[in-house]
Amino acid sequence: MRLPALIGLLTGVLTSSGWAAGTRPPMLTGEALPLLPQHLVEFVLEAVGAPAWLVALGSFAAAAGTVVGVFLSAFALLSLIERKTLARIQNRLGPNRAGIFGILQPVADGIKMLTKEDIVPSKAEWFLHLLAPILIVLPSILALGVIPYGREWNPVPLELGLVFFFAVGTMTEVAVFIAGWASGSKFPMLGAMRAISQMVSYELPLIISALSVVMLSGTLSLAGIVANQAGYHLGFIPAWNILTPWGFVAGIVFAIAANAESNRCPFDLPEGESEIVAGHMTEYSGFKYALFFMGEYLGLFAISGLGITLFLGGWQAPLPGLDFVPSWIWFFGKLAVVIFVFLWVRGTFPRVRIDQLMRFAWLCLIPIALLTLPVAALWKFSGEGALGWLLCSAVLVVPFIIITVIFNRRMAPAIRTYHYAE
């Protein structure tokens, strides 16, 4: 065992491992700071003479643990920030009892969920009832592992990262169906069917809007998509996909569909309390109930991270000359802005009806998402200049006006008749 090397690492001397005396180790730079746990595990295992497969396994486990730890902490923080933000919008105080300014409210909520009684209905399928909340959280964690968070921080650099992201996302529909069916009650089953219909409908514009990015990037690797958005136009305008005519429309469609996929207001129909109690979560309590919300928030992080990667340049700096800032800070800065927009939308828009939800997806979002594919090709072949802006804008605006007029005046009923029980 190379114990002197291990002791040197832990005490900060760092006289071994090939580093020259008096130099700063690469693992302690700002850019590589998120990789510090992974590097430490690798060095410790190598210092004790572990085999190569164990070093690789330990490195992967450390990388996965870092991602999970970061976003579980972000989940706890966001649960407080969201309640504070909504309280501010609604002229309330929000949580202010647990700790200073309510900072310990997530801790109090966690303790409450862990200590509440776990009630399983007598007609429920016990194993599937337990499995469903686990399967809700798992896809989001897997999806978070393939997103490039920085120039050096890419936990699992898959060549088919985009395909993997959408593939694991389909597990959510299965988990929702299991939750509804295994509860042994009619209301959870009805809520599960409504949730699945919403998620399937809005997955189509979500995927189609991402295809335009794949067309012009020529790769399914998320790191490659970020690299394709490097550089600046006219010396100061970032070469992000959102700053193109096709990318702007595709980005808006992606954001709306992501909002619906994340079960956020105004599309939070699966848990419409005034209509179906709590949807597929009706028969859940305690920590199982908390897992559904954890999966929802982690899914929000994942889908927002994917949108940043596809349309907002990923970890690329917004202005030239700012590359000295660690790239992962830019990514999480963009993530904070996107999440705040989701919170703003939730506090602003009322919940839509289920018929409006489905009609909007099939008659508005999907046609516009399909339109971005030929427009992206037109942008590429027109030279990506002033002529491309003119042609693409015309091709996008005219169908949008037609679809909007048809959607608002023809398809939506002008007068609704409500019948009440007497």
Number of strands: 2
Number of helices: 15
Order of helices and strands: HHHHHHHHHEEHHHHHH
Largest sheet: 2 strands, antiparallel
Backbone shape: globular
* Sequence of strands across the biggest β-sheet: 1-2
Task: Give the DSSP E fraction (strand runs of 2 or more residues).
Answer: under 5%
Helix content: 55-70%
Query: What is the end-to-end distance?
Result: 83 Å
Q: How many domain regions?
A: 1
Structural class: mainly alpha
Q: Are there runs of 5+ residues with pLDDT below 50, and where?
A: 1-25
Using the CA coordinates, give the radius of gyration: 24 Å
Mean pLDDT: 84
SSE diagram, text form:
Layout: H1 3-11, H2 36-47, H3 52-89, H4 105-115, H5 126-144, H6 161-169, H7 171-182, H8 186-217, H9 222-228, E1 232-233, E2 237-238, H10 245-261, H11 273-276, H12 286-311, H13 327-346, H14 354-381, H15 386-411
Antiparallel strand pairs: 1-2
Helix pairs in contact: 1-2, 2-3, 3-12, 3-13, 4-12, 5-6, 5-7, 5-12, 7-8, 8-10, 8-14, 10-12, 10-14, 12-13, 14-15
How would you sum up this structure, described in words?
The chain has one domain (116-411). Helices cover 64% and strands 1% of the residues. The chain is built from 15 helices and two strands. The protein has a two-stranded antiparallel ribbon. It is globular. 35% of the residues are buried. Mean pLDDT is 84; it is low at 1-25.
Name its key features:
422 residues, globular, disordered N terminus, two-stranded antiparallel ribbon, mainly alpha, single chain, 15 helices, 64% helix
Summarize the structure.
By secondary structure, the chain is mostly helical.
